[in-house]
Design brief:
Blueprint lengths: L9 H24 L5 H16 L7 H25 L1
Helix pairs in contact: 1-3, 2-3
């Protein structure tokens, strides 16, 4: 029997989780190391990610689709957390 990460569904979740965690760590590092970084800056990056996600006219493939989805989710999560701190 194959381990869960090797099943057709398992590898997708593993990839998504890995990308999400890496993106979130990168955003946290940026916020900590760059005092000029604002929520607006991260929202600007997110807008570009939405555009990139919508430009799948050449069929980038499932692994890249998963990466973009996880990257967008990490940015959305990070922004929501940051805004909650500011409230």
């Amino acid at each position: 029997m194959m381990p869960p990460a090797q099943t057709s569904v398992g590898w997708r979740q593993v990839k998504y989780d890995k990308v999400f965690e890496l993106e979130l760590k990168g955003l946290e590092r940026r916020r900590e190391s760059d005092p000029r970084c604002t929520v607006k800056d991260i929202e600007g990056v997110l807008e570009h990610l939405y555009i990139m996600d919508g430009q799948n006219w050449d069929g980038r493939g499932e692994p890249q689709d998963i990466s973009i989805a996880a990257t967008i989710a990490a940015h959305e999560f990070f922004i929501a957390q940051w805004k909650a701190e500011l409230s």
